[in-house]
Design brief:
Order of helices and strands: HEEEHEHEEEEHEE
Helix content: 10-25%
Length: about 190
């Protein structure tokens, strides 16, 4: 249903993927430097906490930031006093018309206490990006070319800004009277 809704409003949606280790599936709306991921449960027996989050509500579940080196980013975040989980590898079956391929990723999940206002945050290193970025998938009938921004509300703006400085570095945080902006290049290693 989610895929059909996004197609009706003019997005090109990729073929379905299936996260083998998690029991979830996804469709992606690809842009040149970022993407939206529509996710749902395929196998509830192994979906675990991801399945619970998806079963509780619809809407934004989390944010993934691209990194060129998940291990180095994880180590850097530990040195900054953050609490990332150890890097995990993930494979998914990507169901293409010409046959199934297996994109691979390295993921570093952050503790939600370290990312106020951003929900679930993961650093994602695409190990096989050539399988996901086809020119036909980057063109959308509605003219969309990128994710411009994501907004959230936090109870303590100053505390959120301080945590985000540890995550993104002081150069990425723009403090204003009633808001903070986090300006992040989506294809950078977060050190």
């Amino acid at each position: 249903a989610g895929r059909a809704a996004y197609e009706r409003i003019g997005f090109t949606v990729t073929p379905r993927g299936h996260h083998l280790e998690w029991g979830t599936g996804n469709w992606c709306i690809m842009f040149e430097r970022d993407y939206l991921e529509l996710r749902g449960v395929i196998d509830p027996a192994i979906a675990h906490n991801v399945g619970h989050a998806l079963g509780d509500h619809e809407g934004l579940m989390g944010i993934a930031f691209g990194t060129d080196d998940a291990e180095a980013s994880c180590d850097a975040l530990l040195r900054r006093g953050l609490h990332p989980r150890p890097v995990r590898r993930l494979t998914r079956d990507f169901e293409l018309p010409e046959g199934t391929v297996q994109p691979k990723f390295s993921l570093c999940f952050l503790d939600t206490a370290d990312t106020p206002g951003l929900m679930s945050v993961v650093l994602c290193q695409h190990l096989t990006p050539e399988l996901l970025r086809r020119p036909a998938w980057l063109r959308h009938a509605n003219g969309a070319r990128a994710v411009r921004s994501v907004r959230s509300v936090v109870p303590d703006l100053a505390a959120a800004a301080d945590r985000h400085v540890k995550l993104f570095g002081p150069q990425a945080i723009v403090r204003q009277k009633d808001r903070i902006e986090i300006r992040v290049n989506t294809r950078q290693t977060i050190y």
